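[retry 2/3] Replication factor C small subunit: previous attempt timed out, resubmitting with same input.
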Amino acid sequence: MSVLEEALWTEKYRPRTLNDVVNQKEIVERLKKFISEKNMPHLLFAGSPGTGKTTIALALVHDLFGENFRDYFLELNASDERGIDVIRNKVKDFARALPGKGVPFKVILLDEADNMTSDAQQALRRTMELFTSTTRFILACNYLSKVIEPIQSRTALFRFYPLKKEDVVARLEFIAKQEKVSYDQDGLDAIYDVTMGDMRKSINLLQASSAYGKVSVESVYKVLGLAKPKEILEMLNASLQGDFNTARSKLRELLVTYGLSGEDIIKQMHKELVGNNLLKIPEELRVIIADYLGEAEFRLVEGADDDIQLSAVIAKLAILGNKYDIGATK
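[retry 2/3] Replication factor C small subunit: success.
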């Protein structure tokens, strides 16, 4: 392992075997049967980033072939090598060579296979048929719909789902203790709230936040360059209570003191609007506000001024608050 990999906690604490994998228990159990039988079909791993697709593929070949698994394993990232020439050259050359004595087959991992061109996928389909006796393919993708149907029909599909909160937080606690990092529970919860089950992003965020001396809500949001949800909620509440000046002052703080972009603030406002039960407003009002936020984001993307557009949004919210007389909670 290189010095850089050792420095990256995502690599240092990457599970080496299927027994070490966090969550995805059903998938792990199915794959263990392939290991016990020393045989497996072509595999297709589909799911959002950070859910363990590449990690489980590496753990699978490690458990199949042992410490020297790299001798029988080829890993390619289809985002970088996505054309038909890669299939015709690298993949075919590796696939046609016979595996070593006592090794039933070799394994090729094509990561981010959904980024491969259509021609490359058609060539891959034929390659998978020709070299079944010597090679098994593992394809990992974020979007199953971008993988052509002939490849889907030739593989066993495994769907990966975002990890549960308790599993992510437990893993973060383990790493923090191993690295002797000071943390509080709210800080780890904040990491999950931001990453929503993406383990790789969670560990990276834990490592970055530890540079502040302690992993807390404040350090997590500093690393992300985002405002704390409480501050966004306070701005929304002030607006809806018709207190434009207070809301405007909080907005200026986010723009100037925190240095946030208008788009970041709009996205955080939207997140609080749709996911925060502390914002006590009627459903009808949420719909109207969501429409305001969508319109403002469109204008910002088109190049409008952040300050003016966001000031217009909170002004509209102040008018709505007075009209509905809702008295949003503080």
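[retry 2/3] Replication factor C small subunit: The chain has a mean pLDDT of 86.
[retry 2/3] clearing retry counter.
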